[in-house]
Design goal:
Elements (H helix, E strand, L loop, with lengths): L2 E4 L2 E4 L25 H10 L4 H13 L3 H5 L3 H4 L9 E5 L6 E5 L2 H14 L19 H14 L8 H14 L4 H8 L4 H7 L2 H13 L2
Antiparallel strand pairs: 1-2, 3-4
Helix pairs in contact: 2-5, 2-7, 6-7, 8-9
Length: 215
């Protein structure tokens, strides 16, 4: 993998290369933002309405807060009961932490998954829910690219990628009054500051405070 030198250190070039205009420097996930407007969420859903796989993947991602690796790792046995019905909740072992999460599935998620299953017809329970176009497991790089493409194709400006789905989940939970301690637990953060920065609240709050000051 090619690399460039920045102030005496090497930065690898890759699918999550850091953008000089991004709001934060650091790991790849720090360069992407959540969607902050319900209108933007609706616009992407409308854009993806003819693609059951992508529509369901987006809907599941922003409503469950799963990491990208766990999202693309879902298999039909994870979302379907033995008699082929959409489950009311997911039970997921996170790949990164090995923690177990029980996630209730809202009606919009269950509806999107139902449409996807109907479109796919008979599926093997061990098949991936969101496979690559070639039928195997989608790569995290491809998920990152897809989210970025969806935003660009709907005219939404910003820095987006695979972490956008998880951050959007956290952002809207926080805005609707969900306890920050619960979000810290979900994201595995040790401080409120880290969680607020992760979901894009901290800088937004500073910007809004500056605008209110208006001396």
């Amino acid at each position: 993998m090619a690399a460039k030198r920045v102030k005496g250190r090497h930065i690898k070039k890759g699918w999550h290369i850091k953008d000089d205009a991004a709001p934060h420097r650091g790991k790849g996930c720090a360069t992407v933002e959540p969607l902050r407007r319900k209108e933007d969420v609706a616009a992407i859903k409308e854009h993806l309405s003819e693609s059951p796989r992508d529509y369901a993947m987006f809907t599941v991602g922003i409503n469950t807060g799963l990491r990208g690796s766990d999202l693309i790792g879902l298999r039909f046995k994870d979302i379907l009961t033995p008699d082929g019905q959409i489950k009311s909740a997911l039970d997921v072992k996170e790949q990164k932490t090995s923690n177990h999460r029980h996630i209730a599935l809202c009606s919009k998620v269950r509806e999107a998954l139902s449409v996807l299953c109907s479109n796919n017809g008979n599926t093997n329970r061990d098949d991936f829910v969101f496979p690559s176009r070639k039928g195997g497991k989608m790569s995290i790089q491809r998920l990152h690219q897809l989210v970025n493409e969806w935003a660009k194709e709907t005219g939404i400006n910003g820095h987006f990628g695979s972490h956008t789905l998880r951050k959007t989940f956290g952002y809207f939970h926080y805005k609707q009054g969900t306890d920050i301690a619960w979000l810290m637990d979900i994201f595995g953060h040790s401080s409120q500051r880290t969680t607020l920065r992760y979901i894009g609240i901290q800088q937004q709050g500073i910007d809004e405070a500056n605008l209110r000051l208006n001396l």
